Amino acid sequence: MADATNNIRLGEGGTFAGTYIAHWEWPRFELLIPRRLAGHRRVLCLLEPAEGVQWPFPVATKAQPPPRYEVVVAGVPIERGHFGHKGTLRYRIQVDRWLEIQEAS
User: Fold this and answer.
1) Does residue 104 surpass a pLDDT of 70?
2) pLDDT (tens digit, 9 = 90+) per residue, 30-82?
3) Sign of the torsion formed by the C-alpha atoms of 50, 3, 92 and 26
4) Residues pairing with 34 in the sheet
5) How many separate helices (H) and strands (E) can be counted in the chain?
């Protein structure tokens, strides 16, 4: 995986590495954000491709367990709030480029 800081600052571009879960009802990008003292916290995000950027994941259906992918993107956090299924996603990240995509084991 590429080196990613996962520091979320609205309007500032960065590299983000996490797990994308392609669930039919609750698709999400899970980031681990470093804490100041020790460990990490999990933040759920919504990925939105920028204009002209292709969506690389297949559409999930109810009949299958959700596929998981280890993903690295170059993007910009564009909004903080409550998005997605029941408002559980905290950030919208505009994806400018998909840097790495691998099926998770």
Assistant:
1) yes
2) 998 888 788 888 999 999 999 999 999 887 788 778 899 999 999 999 999 99
3) positive
4) 40
5) 0, 5
Higher pLDDT, 100 or 64: 100
Reference 97, options 64, 72, 62, 73; nearest CA is 73
What is the identity of the amino acid at 76? V
CA 90, CA 27: separation in Å to the nearest integer?
Answer: 13
3 domain residue, yes or no: no
The verdict on residue 9 lying in a domain is no
List, for residues 84-94, the tens digit of each pLDDT value.
Answer: 888 899 999 99
Domain span at residue 73?
14-103
Q: Give Cα separations from 98 to 17, 35, 39, 72 (angstroms).
A: 10, 26, 27, 6
- Phi and psi at 57, nearest 5°, equal -100, 145
For residues 102 and 83, what is the distance between their CA atoms, to the nearest angstrom? 25
